[in-house]
Amino acid sequence: MRQRLLVRWLGARPRLRRQESGTPRSCSSSRNVDSVQERVLAEILGRNVDTEYLRNCGLDGGTADRATFRAKVPVASYDALHPYIQRIANGDRSPILSTHPVSEFLTSSGTSGGEPKLMPTVEDELHRRQLLYSLLMPVMNLYFPGLDSGKGLYFLFVKPETKTPGGLTARPVLTSYYKSELFKNRPSCDTYHNYTSPTAAILCADAFQSMYAQMVCGLCQRHDVLRLGAVFASGLLRAIRFLQLNWEQLAADIETGVLSPRVVTDASVREAVAAILRPDADLAQFVRDECCKGDWAGIVTRIWPNTKCLDVIVTGAMAQYVPALRHYSGGLPMACTMYASSECYFGLNLRPRCDPSEVAYTIMPNMGYFEFLPVPVDEATGGVVDAGNLVDLARVEAGREYELVITTYSGLNRYRVGDVLRVTGFHNAAP
Known about the structure:
By secondary structure, this protein is an alpha/beta fold. It is 35% helix and 18% strand. The strands form four sheets. Strands 1-16-15-13-14 form a five-stranded mixed beta sheet. Strand 5 (162-163) and strand 6 form a beta hairpin. The longest helix has 24 residues, at 233-256.
C-alpha cells in the first residue's frame, strides 16, 4: 500500500479554497505568507547550509539567502537524491542532507529500483507536525460544536517496519507517529487524540487482535463516541465488515466482561482492554439485537447514537466508497481534515463539513518551504525542469494548476513531490 497520508496515496488533485463564513480567523502566518516563507527558508538554510548536498550546489554560509538558493539549487527528483539517501541508510553519519542526525526513514509512496522510497526525517520534525495536529480540533469544533467533549472511535493500525543496513528504522509515517513518545504520552487535554481505543490496542502488530480490541472498546463506550473514523474510507468500511462478521463473539465477551483468550492473546492488549471492559448483559443484548437484523443501513448511528461525523479520507480513489459510508452512517457528514505526506505535512481543510467532492486544503506556510511548478511541464526538454519557472507560495494564481516542490527541515531541497494542485482561492493570503 502506498504510504502517503493523503493526496498522493489517492491520486487526488486537492483544491485550495477561499475562506468562507465560519472559517477560523487565521494567525499572522496566513496573512504574511511570503515573509513566513522567507523566514522558514532562512531557518532551513541556517541549519543545513553546511551539508554536503548544498555545498555541492555551490552554497556556503555567506551565500545562504533566498535568491542564491533559487539560483544554485536545482529541482530534484527522488532518483537524483537516492545516492545521498542510500549512503545515510548504509550508515554514513556525516552531514549529507541535514546537519541534524537522521532519526529514521519514513517509507513513501512508489518505489525506486523496486524498493520503497525512503524519506529521511529528524527528531524535531515530529514536533513540527504535531503543531498541525493541534489545530484540528479547534477547526472541527467550529463546524461540529461540542466535539471535544466526547471521544473518537478511530480504527488505527501500525504497519511492519524494517532496518536499513546502517541500523536506522524505516516505517510508514503513521506507524512512526503512533509509536512515538509524543503519541503514547499525549496529555489528557489533547482532545483530538482522545480515543476509545487504548494505545496498546493501536500498537498491536496483529491486525485482527488490534481490530477486535478497538471494536470492543468502542462498543463499551458507545455513548461517548462523537466521531468515528479511520485513515481511509476503505478502512472504516473494513471495520464495519469486521463487526458484521464478529458481532456474536463481541457480544459474548461484553456479556462476560472478559476477552476470549482464543481471540486476543496479546497480554498488553488484554490488560489495557480489561480497564474498560466490564460484564454488561444489557449492552451485549443490544449488540445482538442490532446486528442480527440483517439490515445494516444506519448501523453507525444506531450503535453510536451521538456520532456527529465520520473522519476519513474520501478524496481521490477513496471517493468510490462515499455511497457505502452514507448507507452505513445514515448520511453523517464526512470530514477530510489534513493534507500531509511522509516528506512533509502541508495543510488543513478549513471547511471540514463540506461535501466530499468539495474537499480543499489551505497550505500552512510554516511547515516547510513551498514552490510550485506550473502545469503542464514542457516535456520537450526530456523532463528537465527549469528552476526559474518555479512560483513562490505567495504568488500562485487562482485557477492554475501546479506541481508541488518542497524544501524541508529534514534535508529535502527543491524536491518534486509529484502532487498536482489546483488553486481555487485563498484563506487570507494563503492558497
